[in-house]
Write a structure and sequence with these properties.
Length: 115
């Protein structure tokens, strides 16, 4: 599933979500930034992860950092969504998850009403 990681997250007011960087300059939060931050963050309980798990997270973050359109496996997309949900508040999770939703290109038929 190819997903564009360049869109900027928008707040309720429709304006870009941003925060100041270490130099005090505003930086817009993109899907890329949120995904990479979530994958590279260290959380309580991460000491139970294997080296393979940590290396996989790093490799996935590197792919997201280097490419504007990332081909996610369903498992990798689920992992990213889970880590974003665990690492950020609702103001970031909501817009990020919305941009990470994969839309089925073929609409499903509506169920028939009975009776």
């Amino acid at each position: 599933m190819k997903i564009d990681v360049t869109p900027v997250l928008l707040g309720f007011n429709g304006k870009p979500i941003q925060a100041d960087n270490e130099d005090g300059e505003p930086v817009r939060w993109t899907v890329r930034k949120v995904c990479c931050d979530a994958l590279l963050a260290v959380r309580r309980g991460d000491d139970k992860l294997t080296g393979e798990d940590k290396a996989h997270r790093f490799a996935l973050a590197r792919r997201i950092f280097e490419d504007d359109s990332v081909d996610f496996t369903p498992e990798d997309l689920a992992l990213v969504r889970k880590l974003i949900g665990a690492g950020f508040g609702p103001a970031i999770v909501g817009p990020a998850w919305a941009l990470l939703d994969v839309v089925d290109p073929e609409p499903q038929p509506e169920p028939q009403k009975r009776g």
